[in-house]
Write a structure and sequence with these properties.
Layout: E1 2-4, E2 8-10, H1 25-72, H2 80-90, E3 94-101, E4 104-111, E5 118-125, E6 134-135, E7 138-139, H3 148-156
Antiparallel strand pairs: 1-2, 3-4, 4-5, 6-7
């Protein structure tokens, strides 16, 4: 309230419609909104950090399993599990487990420690019952007895026989198939 000369008291425009008990309520409301916003942001950042760790662990496991499978079939020298450990370490992970059966390798990697540790498993190599072995898209099994020139010629119709049905040289390449 402002005290005026002669008329007594003149009401302060800031006091219009507000009682003394309402003063400071916006400050409390703002503090609550900021606290809730900070909690939501913290949970979101924690979830995003966990997701990044999961993706990194899976990538490390995939690379470690591929390195072990490549060592199994002789594409790279050395012990398969030692190769997998080296690749996992290069990806910032720890190789928690490694096993090989035939031309297949299984790698388990871990990123982080304690309650925040994230693990992933990957398997690489020839599928069970496969006739051809492929590692990194390279055919490593027995090759076709038909020469490349014969396969190419049969595709153009120079020789008798059905020939390949696509432009990919099917005897020398092995493509990994992924479901989409």
């Amino acid at each position: 309230m402002i005290v005026g000369a002669g008329s007594g008291r003149v009401p302060d425009p800031a006091d219009r419609g507000a009682s003394r008990s309402d003063r400071g309520s916006v400050t409390v409301l703002l503090a609550v909104v900021l606290a809730v916003g900070t909690a939501v942001a913290t949970v979101g950042m924690t979830a995003a950090t966990h997701r990044v760790a999961v993706v990194r662990a899976q990538a490390a496991a995939d690379a470690a399993a591929l390195a072990a499978a490549a060592a199994l079939v002789g594409l790279v020298p050395g012990d398969p599990c030692a190769r997998a450990a080296t690749v996992a370490e290069a990806d910032g992970a720890v190789l928690a487990g490694c096993s090989t059966v035939g031309a297949r390798a299984r790698a388990t990697t871990t990123i982080g420690t304690g309650a925040f540790a994230v693990s992933a498993v990957a398997v690489a190599g020839a599928p069970s019952g496969a006739r051809h072995l492929c590692v990194y898209g390279v055919h490593v099994g027995p090759r076709s007895s038909m020469s490349r020139s014969t396969r190419t010629a049969s595709h153009t119709g120079d020789l008798a026989g059905p020939g390949p049905t696509s432009t990919i040289d099917q005897g020398d390449t092995c493509q990994a198939r992924r479901s989409s």
